[in-house]
Amino acid sequence: MILALIVVSFLVFQRNHPNISQPKAKSITSSICIGNDRKNCLAPFKRFDSKYRISRKYKLLSCVIEKNMSTILAAIICFLFDEEAFQQANRSITTDLYEERFCKNKNEYFTAQQIVKDTKISLGDWTMFTVARDPIDRFLSGYVNKCILETKRNRYPNKCYGCGKNLSCFVDKQFERAQKYVTGKIRQWSYEDIHFYPQNWHCEFHTNIHHYHIVQYATDTSERYEKMLQELANILEISGVNRNTVEKITKEIRESRTAHATFNSPQRAQQQTTLNLLRH
Ligand SMILES: *[C@@H]1O[C@H](CO)[C@@H](O)[C@H](O)[C@H]1NC(C)=O
Ligand SMILES: *[C@@H]1O[C@H](CO)[C@@H](O)[C@H](O)[C@H]1NC(C)=O
Ligand SMILES: *[C@@H]1O[C@H](CO)[C@@H](O)[C@H](O)[C@H]1NC(C)=O
Ligand SMILES: CC(=O)N[C@H]1CO[C@H](CO)[C@@H](O)[C@@H]1O
Predict the structure, then answer these.
(1) 230: how many CB neighbours lie within 10 A of its CB?
(2) CA atoms of 64 and 218, how far apart (whole Å)
(3) Are 199 and 65 in contact (CB under 8 A)?
(4) How far, in Å, from the CA of 260 to the mean position of ligand 4?
């Protein structure tokens, strides 16, 4: 029970910030972390890792929060950064993997301030957006992918604190780290932190959330998937990308099925069950 509170509370996407309800910002609603649960919640809006990808041509700026969609988001912006070069290099939006991404070090920033400085375009003149995921889904998907399935980092015995399939072990350790980060006892961040700290700590939301369009993530097996693609398409059109190009982008995304999606995997079902048990 207490564990359950901790699980849900440190994941929550905070909704009560005075600036979140301004016209451009949409929040992910959640019924957790309110009332008595609040004391188990981590402080919202800490300053944390932020990764920006920009297309100057369209004054389009995306902050990518680690999750599977982030690779595709970055690829869309990369394509719009230099459409010709991207195509000439035979890249495609759904196959431009993170490690070999075409735009590496070309349109990438870590602070909004640096973007404004380099482009001389103030933040208010950019179309800014990000994709955020339901915090519990994000946690489960991240846990299954990073702590259980991912083989890339199997050489590191301490991956996910060496907790393996022990969910409560991982949650305890990660929560403890998060608290230390809040109080300033830890200043660095790890691979795990980037994938599991609250989304509201990213993207310099503490000062800039009112600038953002926030699209709610949907897996490609969910009913909301089409809606998410439509919202993305709207944002691209707002920034001046022509309709044909927008359609080309969404078509490509639609046609790709991420082999990686964990939504229906047996491991995922197992973790869902575990979490349900913990919550009751
Ligand atoms: C809300 O936005 C305004 C205008 O950008 C800013 O001055 C203010 O500090 C923000 N409030 C909070 C609580 O971040
Ligand atoms: C892209 O593909 C075309 C046709 O397959 C090929 O001729 C060209 O060399 C490729 N370009 C690059 C940069 O790989
Ligand atoms: C899981 O980890 C916790 C805390 O690290 C430990 O107390 C518990 O015995 C572990 N459970 C299993 C099944 O290994
Ligand atoms: C489509 C896509 O972006 N898939 C990626 C999901 O995340 C894993 C691990 O980070 C990548 O290996 C996949 O390529």
Answers:
(1) 12
(2) 15
(3) yes
(4) 6
3-state SS of the chain? CHHHHHHHHCCCCCCCCCCCCCCCCCCCCCCCCCHHHHHHCCCCCCCCCCCEEEECCCCEEEECCCCHHHHHHHHHHHHHHCHHHHHHCCCCCCCCCCCCCCCCCCCEECCHHHHHHHHCCCHHHCEEEEEECCHHHHHHHHHHHHHHHCCCCCCCCCHHHHCCCCHHHHHHHHHHHHHHHHCCCCCCCCHHHHHHCCHHHCCCHHHHHHHEEEEECCCCCCCCHHHHHHHHHHHHHHCCCCHHHHHHHHHHHHHCCCCCCCCCCHHHHHHHHHHHHHHC
Whether pTM > 0.85 for this model: the answer is no
Q: Which two tokens stand for residue 76?
A: 């869309």
Count: domains in the chain? 1
Identify which of 86, 87, 88, 90 to mutate to test ligand 2's pocket (most ligand atoms within 8 A of the CB).
90
Q: Which of 158, 169, 170, 176 to mutate to test the pocket of ligand 3 (most atoms within 8 A of CB)?
A: 169
Task: Kindly give the distance from the C-alpha atom of residue 267 to the centroid of ligand 3, in angstroms, as a whole number.
Answer: 19
Six token digits for residue 201:
């700590």
**The two structure tokens encoding residue 157:** 């015995």
In terms of residue numbers, what domain contains 133? Answer: 2-279
Residues having CB closer than 6 A to ligand 2 are 89-90
pLDDT at 184 over 90: yes
Look at ligand 4, atom 6, and give the residue with the nearest C-alpha. Answer: 68
Express each pLDDT in 69-124 by its tens digit.
899 999 999 999 999 999 999 999 988 888 899 999 999 999 999 999 999 999 99
Phi, psi at 44, each rounded to 5°: -80, 165
